[in-house]
Specification:
- With 155 residues, the protein is an alpha+beta fold.
- Pfam families: Cupin_1 (PF00190).
- GO terms for molecular function: manganese ion binding.
Length: 155
């Protein structure tokens, strides 16, 4: 039996350390190789005025085993970021910005810095020390960011 050039994720099985098991090749269809989630304008009416639509293996089974993933960002320019380097995007123009992102991992992390710092349960004293922001301002930011649902960024 010849090895296939692809391994469409069989998401009915549990994900393992190297990804999902391959779907039975007899059940693979053209739709397995197409992701339409990047189409159309996305909603950016939120605090960050942005949106991230992911094409990770959970949304696009065709990239299983390729060691990559993609995303569409409704903000910022396309840039290269060294691995693990904290970065951000902001649109300084007058028209909507759009970026398509290729990531060199099958399951990359995604974290919004402000919600990570102020939306969780990090003690006020620690947040104040690492940001040089007064404890009063940290409490105000905690009130703002603790109510943000970041799961909506995972389309």
């Amino acid at each position: 039996m010849q090895e296939p050039d692809y391994c469409i994720a069989d998401r009915s099985l549990p994900r393992g350390p190297t990804g999902y098991a391959c779907k039975d090749p007899a059940k693979v269809t053209t739709d397995d190789f197409v992701f339409t989630g990047f189409r159309g304008e996305k909603d950016t009416t939120n605090l960050f005025q942005s949106n991230a639509t992911f094409a990770f293996v959970e949304q696009f089974s065709g990239i299983n085993g390729l060691g990559l993933s993609m995303a569409r960002l409704e903000a910022g320019d396309v840039m290269i970021f060294p691995q693990y380097l904290l970065h951000f995007q902001t649109n300084v123009g007058e028209t909507p910005a759009l970026a398509f992102v290729a990531l060199n991992g099958a399951n990359p992390g995604f974290q919004i810095t402000s919600t990570a710092l102020f939306g969780g349960n990090l003690p006020v004293e620690i947040a104040s020390q690492i940001t040089a922001i007064s404890p009063e301002e940290v409490r105000r930011l905690q009130n703002v960011f603790s109510e943000i649902d970041t799961t909506s960024y995972d389309a």
